[in-house]
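User: Batch of two.

Assistant: Item 1 of 2:
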Amino acid sequence: MGNQAGEFLLEFPDSVCHFIKIIIAHRIKDERWNRKTAKGNFRIILHGKQAHGSAPWLGIDPIVTAAQIVNNLQTIVSRSLKLTKAAAVVTVGSIHGGVRSNIIPEELEMLGTIRTFDTEMRQKLHERFRTIVNSTATSNGATADIELPYSAHYPVTYNDPTLTEKMLPTLERTAGKENLELIDAITGAEDFSFFANEVPGLFLFIGGKPLDVPKEVKVSHHTPDFYIDESGMKLGVRTLLNLTLDYMEMGSIQ
């Protein structure tokens, strides 16, 4: 059954309802053929030399090295990539090193994510990333082990233009034309992209922001104040049902 289900999925265009805090409930945002980024996480292990904090000259400090790497990595996007072509993001989201206030640690771990739309830009970003990390570590007497990509890696999410145009009337009828917004590409990533790389795909958002909360004070997901107005789920169910039934009625499935 598992294999049959997988084969079944790949025979049909894909559409997904996704809840996101920054969109008000009872509205749909459709990215059309604009996209979500490819995602590649990274892991850096910096190796220094442990020493007492009162005598830092006896050690090699991976914490100071990490601080310099964080700053230097930001120059990749601002100085090495043609941002008029496509957006890109480099974010360091986690740094772990040391166990005491008065000890320079032996090593340190850095975790982060890279988001890109363009393949050539992604290759250049990865090259600059490795050069900057290794050069910064060397300049401090440290060494760096780089894992890129590390853990999850997702390709670009792309909405098929033909499928999107075909299903647009369904979305307008379901939510109301006034509640359908076409938005630009965003720098989030989505595992839906694996399906859309195999068959024509259509990715859209279903609003989840409470109706009584003004846009000006909306709170993003991945924050402790994130809250979903579950009434928006009804629109999500109707949307998926109508997309499926209308697509079948068009005679695309024999």
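Item 2 of 2:
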Amino acid sequence: MKKGTLYCVGMGPGDPELLTFKAWHALCHCPVLALPEDQSGRQTAATILKEAAARQDGLYMDEKTMLSLTFPMTRDAAVLQKAHEDASQKAAAVLDQGLDIALITLGCPTVYASCMYIQKEIRRRGYNTVVIPGITSFSAAAARLGQSLCEKDEPLLIVPAGRDDIPDLLDVQGSKVLMKVPRHMGALKKQLQEKGLLSCASLVERCGLPGERVCTDIRDVDDTGYFSVILVRQEDDL
């Protein structure tokens, strides 16, 4: 029996209208939809999927088989490895039946996405995989702010906010995107202030999702949710 193919599908940042045609075609084609969830059972990407299906003909959720895959929000390497192994095994069992799977993810699979750990393991086992890019959260955030991320030969630096070398990275010329902001907001504000960049920083939380928040002045922002991104552009770059 021919084995199925795993499609890693970028759902974009939150607005269902930002789904690409290629992503939509994969979602309609695959009989099995793999839905990532955290340890509490929350499925944010699935919310976008269901909203898209309600707005557009062609994707009929009641005709699909749903496969829930748990990706815990933790830095414990052993816990993450076990979760990735379990998810890969579940996916492989479906692929062995000759069924294609669309594994959805927020944003783009190529940017800090758990689904790529599964894709690498599935490919290592000899299955076919396809990665379908999506609009990133920081691209959508820049559009929401009405500004470009970078222009001409200006570099763009994308950094997880929890890195120890953030002060050094803030010295790098060009625009900065700070991701994975929660738990680091206080330290980030202090570091940006010390570098004279606090007034150049904007925050967008839950871009395109219910509860979206846009802050062009983050000095009074003390806490934020997981789906947040900070964009830093100096005035002479705008």
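The helical segments are 21-29, 44-55, 77-95, 115-124, 137-145, 166-170, 185-194.
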